[in-house]
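Review box. Two proteins, two foldings.
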Amino acid sequence: MSSIKEITSVEDWEQHVSSLLPSTLLIVSFHAPWAAPCAQMAIVLSTLASEYPVTEPPSTSWVKINAEDLSDISEAYNVTAVPFLVLIRNGQVLETVSGSSAVKVRDAIERHASKAGAATTTSANGLGAGAGGNSEGEVTTEEDPEKKKQELFRRLGDLVKAAPVMLFMKGTPSEPKCGFSRQMVGILRDNAVKYGFFNILADDEVRQGLKEFADWPTFPQLWVDGELVGGLDIVKEELENNADFLKPYSVKANGDVSAGAS
């Protein structure tokens, strides 16, 4: 599976770009460590990258850049806000996506990545690998629902393990969009828990799929070590029964008193 490379200098960037083939899709994520939406986007992109196998020659290349540290590169691509995604092939910008919409990011990457695959791989009847075809050579556009579900569940399996403590909520920790999510954030903050989060309002596929994947119909959902704890009531009950329930995930317990929740 593909992974995301951190670009730390202009020289590193130039060397990486020059090493790519003209057919490779370069996926560049501009971020800032202080911006909460970037933490969510990092999870989205890491999950997406894992869906693309490493090929020879490489069909995709995934990198991330601190927009403030490497301002010259940011200015070259007109990055004025983060998160900001740039899709490049053969030195040409194909598309940019500003903001934290996981749906827009996924759609953009899949659209351009599939074009790359269709250009380099053909099947016996001449159809691109990204296109469907039947025995008569006719193109079909219908996706196998079961295969699509399996792919979604694989993605969700990665998401729930993206951090030791993962919160799937409505909104973000700085701007919760429901009272239950706000209370859950408060509980994690009060217990000094460092956690990852995912705004389910930004990706309806995750929002609906996670209900079935978890067999839990409501949000927020708290996951610990890849296992579902439950919603707000369950988390409160766990803490009532064991005040140290979240202690192993506390930044204080791990000696990192300067760290805060994601």
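Next protein.
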Amino acid sequence: MPLICFASPKGGVGKTTLAANVADAMRRQGRRVLVMDFDPQNTLRLHFGVPLSDIAGFMTELPKRPDWREMVRQTASGVMLLPHGSIDIRGALGLAHALERDPELLAAPLRAILTDPSLLVIADTPPGASHALSILAPMASMVCAVLLADATSAALVPDIDSGRFLGAGTMAALFAGRLRVVLNGVDPNTRLSRAAAETVARHLGPRLLGAICREEIVAEALAAQRLVLDLAPNSQAAEDLREIARGIEAALPPVPEPFSPGWGAR
């Protein structure tokens, strides 16, 4: 039933990589995990070994009101996956307009998914404000904003404080209370990275969920279409991922008894 949204004020910060690997870490902690891709880049699937040639997905079929149960993939990691699907610019704009006209296209199936009390849902959302995030945020137990440990991220802290990238107005302020932050790509050997991380950490305080060190193994895992905890379980990045998963786990209700919703995975 809990929904965790991974979001970011800007692209290129490793949001999708973190969503995939935290989903895997949560599964290893005993959670049943479904990870959903709402980003038109459709790259979440690559972390779970889905072939490049497999371009089908849930979001691209959304205007046809598909049965989401039939589109769930069972990955080798044990994490269930609903890929976004391949889409061009025109299709992405059309999908955004469809969600703007009728938010229930997405809200209704998501409510159905969240009726399973034993299921943890992790959502990878597009960078910045989006129709998908505005629909997901009111249902989310937590929104994890991903920032890089650099000067640009330090400059984005006011957007985190205000919840501005979640949307606008009073609703953004309400959702900001569920916001936590993960710093990605922290290099303790680089003065600028270290200083930016320390500045953000001091400002955010307990809202900082954790940090991921900069290691080549993270990029190597993606290149191999594998997960960090599978490829390099003893790396510092792997331990950082476990720590973030433990922080999320501590904020969630206990895992209930297994639930049989009558749907499987392919």
